[in-house]
Amino acid sequence: MKWFDKAKGFGFATVFGQKGDIFLHIEVLRHGGFADLTVGEAIAIRIVDGRRGLMAAQILTWDRVIESERSPQSAANVPLLLKPRLVAGVL
Q: How far apart are CA 8 and CA 26, in angstroms?
């Protein structure tokens, strides 16, 4: 994570192997079950093209995504929104 300011309610993440930043709003974090993020934390995000550039539309813990790949039963619990354009992000 380049930075995340909980008081301001947003921050920016970087994506492995890509240039540029991903805008991350606190409501996306809350919807994913996160209260806050720490620098260096690995997450899985679904990104979309926003009016001002790339932004996170969905976020999951990296562990949850890895588990869904290993277990067909767990895959059913991963929202379909994650399937397109899933990338690994580092905060």
A: 9
Domains observed in the chain: 3-90 (2.40.50.140)
CA distance linking residue 87 with residue 14, whole number of Å: 10
pTM of the predicted protein model: 0.69
Dmax (CA) for the chain in angstroms is 39
- d(CA 90, CA 74) in angstroms, rounded, equals 23
Q: Which residues of 6-26 are buried (b: 16+ CB within 10 A; e: fewer)?
A: eeeebbbbebeeeeebbbbeb
Tokens of 42: 């690995």
Q: Give the separation between CA 46 and CA 83, rounded to whole angstroms.
A: 8
Q: What is the pLDDT of residues 44-77, one digit of tens each?
A: 888 899 899 999 999 888 777 777 767 655 555 5
